[in-house]
Write a structure and sequence with these properties.
It is a single chain. With 372 residues, the protein is α+β, with helices and mostly antiparallel strands. It has 2 domains: 5-20 and 194-271 and 310-366, no CATH class; 35-185, no CATH class. Helix content is 15%, strand content 34%. The protein is elongated, with a radius of gyration of 27 Å. Residues 1-27 form the signal peptide. It holds the Pfam family TED. Keywords: Cell wall, Membrane, Peptidoglycan-anchor, Secreted, Signal, Transmembrane, Transmembrane helix.
């Protein structure tokens, strides 16, 4: 027997979940800016062109050590015309404030470049050759230089020369750096902003009851596979197999526990947060609690964080489901199946903190009107 359903919304409230910090956080609270000190290690000198003229530049290996942390994170320059002042502290800003172009392209380059892809793997994926005599540091220099060149291509419209791109390059450095650069600047894709990630559910309006189960329900996720769990019943695929994880567009059915009429389904999509956090040079005064503007760009090049951090997109749906009772055919059609459903689905707010700050997920309760 297959029956149309109708619903009466359950009461639900909006929820705020702090994912990285392990505790609650309010979306309206303004997080303290991440501050830190830049570092620079020797790298390769690259030959290129800027504004139609020769412009050679050092691709030194840059890092940022957050205040209060001992870990140094890989960062890249997004401001080729300005030298780096390693004595100047840095604070997190935003892309609009930096005035730099092509954030989505830069984010894709960093997500697919070094160190998110290992140095040797990146060079080989680019079609370049790894010199077996290179040390780990030399490998890193080559992969970093190719990635930095690609970043500058999008932020500053700088072009790496195809002929001897590494000044004084030898032992295959020229070919490998150029291969990485071309790999990261050709057919550049798009990495979504975390604020675009969502996990949701479709099919509540059309789900029916047949062979002892309710459904189908369709998972929607642009944040990757969704791990599903249920309290008050179990979830099945079309063939009856238990559901553990589903991709976007895949379906599941609900089987209630005996004598139960309610079930809570939770879903979690785990992913790596896209790179793209911008850091601007500051003055000590701009970091004080009395400063009107807590982030003030100084005369030192702008930096962008290269490393992603893991995050989760949680979601929860609650249903009250009543299976219809069989009736003799002469009594007419079986009664409609009452069903209530509340979908708590998640969308991330902008300004996520990857280093020390919290990651706040805003969970919005959807309430639908009764239909028949």
């Amino acid at each position: 027997m297959s029956l149309k359903t109708f619903r009466t919304p359950l009461a639900a409230s909006a929820v705020l979940a702090a994912v990285l910090t392990g505790g609650p956080a309010l979306a309206q609270e303004e997080a303290e800016p991440i501050t830190g000190d830049p570092t620079a290690e020797p790298g390769l000198e690259l030959r290129g062109r800027l504004d139609g003229e020769r412009f050679d530049v050092w691709a030194n290996l840059l890092g940022l050590t957050p205040h209060g942390s001992e870990e140094t994170y890989t960062v890249y320059c997004i401001d080729i015309r300005t030298p780096l002042d390693t004595e100047s502290p840095y604070a997190e800003g935003d892309w609009e404030e930096s005035g730099v172009a092509n954030l989505e392209s830069v984010r894709w380059v960093l997500f697919n470049g070094f160190p998110n892809v290992g140095a040797e793997d990146l060079i080989e994926a680019s079609g370049g050759e790894v010199n077996p005599d290179w040390s780990d540091d030399e490998l890193a220099e080559v992969a970093y230089a190719g990635t930095q060149a690609a970043v500058w291509h999008f932020t500053d419209d700088w072009e790496l020369l195809a002929d001897n791109p590494v000044k004084g390059g030898n032992d295959g450095e020229d070919e490998a750096v150029l291969a990485v650069y071309e790999h990261l600047t050709e057919d550049t894709g798009r990495v979504p902003d975390p604020s675009e990630y969502i996990v949701d559910l479709e099919g509540e309006e059309d789900a029916g009851y047949e062979d002892g189960r309710f459904g189908p329900y369709t998972v929607r996720s642009n944040a990757g596979p969704v791990t599903l769990e249920a309290e008050g019943g179990r979830l099945e695929k079309a063939n009856g197999d238990a559901v553990e994880s589903l991709e976007d567009g895949e379906e599941f059915w609900i089987v209630l526990e005996e004598a139960s009429s309610e079930i809570t389904v939770t879903g979690t999509a785990a992913y790596d947060l896209p790179v793209g956090r911008v850091f601007l040079a500051t003055t000590e005064a701009s970091l004080s609690g009395d400063a009107a503007n807590r982030v003030v760009s100084g005369e030192s090049q702008k930096l962008i964080l290269a490393e992603p951090r893991e995050g989760e997109v949680p979601a929860e749906w609650r249903f009250a489901l009543d299976a219809p009772t069989d009736r003799p055919s002469e009594s007419g059609p079986a009664p409609q199946l009452p069903k209530t459903g509340t979908s708590l689905t998640v969308a991330f707010a902008a300004g996520l903190a990857l280093l020390i700050g919290g990651l706040t997920a805003a969970v919005f309760a959807k309430r639908r009107s009764t239909t028949h």
